[in-house]
Amino acid sequence: MLRIAILDDYQSVARGMADWSRIGPDVEIVSFDHHLSEDDAPVELLSFDVLCIMRERMAVSRRLIEALPRLKLIAVTGSHTQVIDVEAAQERGIPVTLTAPRASNSAAELTWALVLALARKITQEDRNMREGRWQSTVGFRLEGRTLGLIGLGTLGARVARYGQAFDMNVVAWSSNLDPQRARDLGVEPVSKDQLLRQSDVVSIHLKLGPRSRGLIGASEFQLMKPSAILVNTSRAAIVDQSALAQALRDKLIAGAALDVFDPEPLPSDHPVRHLPNTILTPHIGFVTEESYRDFFTGIVETICDWRQARAGAP
User: Fold this and answer.
1) Taking a C-beta distance cutoff of 8 angstroms, is the pair 99, 299 a contact?
2) Beta-carbon contacts of residue 155 (< 8 Å; ≥ 6 apart)
3) What tens digit of pLDDT does each residue of 241-255 get?
4) Rounded CA separation 148/146 (Å)
């Protein structure tokens, strides 16, 4: 009997997003609707042969790999991962597979939803309405204001088009920005400091790496307008979390919308839950039915291919 664990299936929907019966009749599939801690995982996953990992929700360390004697395959959704100890897996002869979905605008769409919600104070007014108040805030319109994109890759370029559709001036910076490509997109290439000084909305669209970790910190917040808002749907560690909290407390910026956190899931007592002028969403940039169907169908195909290859091996 092949035992398969689907990890961090928070909404308990993975089983309905793909035809898992294709893997075979001699299979037991267990879906975990909660996050396993580093201490719980070795015990809870001891009897499983396959781990299905959704993006970077679950870290698979050398310690965990060495604690799972039955583990034979780690199947990860997404085109890259920084949370799997691939070297430790290779030493055990355990394949680590990646499953990229079709190109998706899901994260860009969420980014723009957060921009609008911050600019028009939608979540604050929703709460106030439910508590009996009426028109207690004053928002700002996006037309004529400046959208600053830190990163102008696939997602950044999509958000640039959204900004242009709202008649915003769009500027961009990254350490490897192609100025001509930016201009071809109708985006003005600027320095990082210029972007932070000019922008009314700053939106981050970078991958996390050595160059981007801690890229936005205390000195960067000092450059921003007091009326500016920050949106981060990329990775939490790109922004210094302590500096962000202090900037919000000191009103160096007007607000922040965050879809990414460190750690995840965000602990119930984490200070960021109590920061003023924030909108928080639980890393749902890619969480759409379409993306889930792509991801989990890819996982099923990966496991089927792996089983077929094992069956045909000498």
Assistant:
1) yes
2) 107, 108, 111, 205
3) 999 999 999 999 999
4) 6
- Tokens 């398969």 correspond to what residue? 4
Closest CA relative to residue 14, chosen from 314, 238, 289? 289
pLDDT average, residue stretch 155-181: 97
Q: How far apart are the first and last CA of the chain?
A: 21
Number of domains in the chain: 2
Residue 59 burial (10 A CB sphere; 0-12, 13-18, 19+): middle
Q: Give the pLDDT confidence score for residue 178 in this predicted structure.
A: 97
Dmax (CA) of the chain: 73
Phi and psi based region of residue 107 (left: phi greater than 0; alpha: psi -120 to 50; beta: remaining):
alpha
Which positions are catalytic?
A: 235, 264, 283
Residues 31 and 112 in one domain: no
* Rg (the chain; Cα; Å): 22
Q: Is 50 helix (H, G, I), strand (E, B) or coil?
A: strand
Q: Could you tell me the residue range of the domain that residue 29 belongs to? A: 2-103+289-312
